[in-house]
Specification:
The chain is of the alpha/beta class. The longest helix is centred in the first third of the chain and has 19 residues.
Length: 409
């Protein structure tokens, strides 16, 4: 009887252990060299520090491809254990439908409201006072990345702002260098559009349109000048025939392009290539005009799965993502800024230090994904995709944009 009891107890322990250890599928779109290096840090820490296993669900093609696929799976009743989405309103309808796990108890127990900076990132995760995601990093889109080698080949000084960059474009072309690297996807072109407009119209006018949805301001003379500047940038990118953003970044790394307008995630690609900020390339926040950054970036959501051990694994991953150690390791590899205001990033490169200083000085604003709903955001992407691929006039593009703003949510 004792033997049988011991065997039964051992079986029960094994069963409990089996239930506690979960294979947690995590979907994300981090597939470039720098992104893969960063996400590997998380996967390794999760596998080493818990009884669970990270099942990598990488989806190639960036957020434009991945987000619809992720949302479709969750709505269709095939949820993953965790998923990357952007800060903002992408998951709002999923939350309202009761399909996302409430993380409020964990957030309160770990004091997220005291450590996350800026607090607007946690507010983006909060619906009706409840927390539904873990902010992972801060990514800003308003950067011009400049190849030192390209400008040296053309016999030019390295520019310090967009105007100087444009002034050297003809000489770059004469040297056989593409002035502006640009991937042929609407979201990339929207980033370039937003960065250029911000640099030309200034912060107040930009936020009046994007945050306050003021269509009259979008039709103003300042915005007309901005659309003309975007049309000029389109000409500088005419010979850029790559599709993906990281391939455009590689043109800057290889000195075959003068520069690229892209978010600070480009830093991961420079880092993997062994490039040194300030020596091989320059980074110009706010296009060298306005030292202000948006607080876009990534957050992790945890779809509701009716299994206690899966939920336990989800909570362990959520806790890991916000930990000091992971905030340092991940963001140093990714080139993004941490969401915690209480960690030491003295090891960060010169470009990250610029971003950290701007963040410390309060030079931040909401990203488009925080001010626009997913439908409006996609309409702008579609407009930019058409504008950059055709000869649509600046005036026609501005008129279409004004119409989008009039109906924006």
């Amino acid at each position: 009887m004792k033997i049988i009891t011991k065997l039964m107890s051992a079986t029960a322990l094994l069963a409990a252990s089996s239930l506690a250890a979960e294979d947690l599928e995590v979907t994300h779109w981090w597939t470039s060299g720098g992104e893969a290096a960063a996400v590997k840090k998380v996967a390794e820490a999760f596998n080493a520090g818990t009884d669970h296993t990270w099942i990598d669900g990488a989806i190639a093609g960036g957020g434009g491809t991945s987000i619809p696929a992720i949302i479709s799976r969750i709505i269709g009743g095939e949820p993953m254990g965790a998923t990357q989405l952007n800060h903002g309103r992408q998951a709002q309808e999923l939350i309202e439908a009761g399909l996302m796990t409430d993380l409020t108890e964990l957030a309160e127990a770990q004091g997220w409201r005291d450590i996350i900076n800026p607090i607007s990132l946690l507010d983006s995760c909060t619906v009706d006072g409840r927390v539904y995601c873990v902010p992972m990093n801060i990514h800003s889109a308003q950067w011009l990345w400049v190849s030192h080698g390209a400008f040296e080949t053309a016999g030019l000084p390295v520019p310090t702002n967009w105007d100087e960059f444009v002034a050297g474009s003809a000489q770059l072309k004469e040297a056989g260098i593409v002035p502006l690297a640009m991937g042929q996807q609407g979201w990339q072109q929207s980033i370039a559009f937003g960065a250029l407009v911000l640099g030309i119209v200034g912060v107040d006018s930009f936020l009046e349109v994007t945050a306050n949805k003021n269509a009259d301001e979008a039709a103003s003379e300042a915005w007309t000048r901005a659309f003309v500047a975007v049309a000029e940038a389109r000409e500088l990118a005419r010979d850029s025939n790559v599709q993906d953003w990281n391939l455009a970044t590689n043109m800057v790394i290889q000195d075959t392009a003068g520069g690229q307008i892209m978010g600070d995630w480009a830093q991961g690609e420079f880092q993997v290539a062994g490039e040194i900020a300030g020596k091989d390339y320059s980074c110009l926040p706010g296009m060298g005009f306005n030292e202000i950054l948006d607080t876009g970036g990534d957050a992790f959501y945890f779809p509701v799965i009716d299994n206690p051990s899966v939920k336990a694994a989800q909570m362990e991953l959520a806790s890991l993502l916000i930990s000091k150690e992971m905030q340092v390791d991940f963001n140093l590899a990714k080139g993004s800024l941490p969401v915690r205001g209480d960690i030491d990033l003295s090891a960060a490169n010169a470009c990250m230090q610029k971003g950290l200083q701007i963040l410390a000085d309060g030079g931040i604003m909401p990203s488009n994904r925080q001010t626009f709903d997913a439908d409006t955001d996609q309409q702008i992407n579609d407009l930019m995709s058409e504008f950059w691929a055709t000869d649509m006039s600046a005036a026609d593009a501005q008129a279409a944009y004004v119409s989008i703003i009039k109906n924006a949510n």
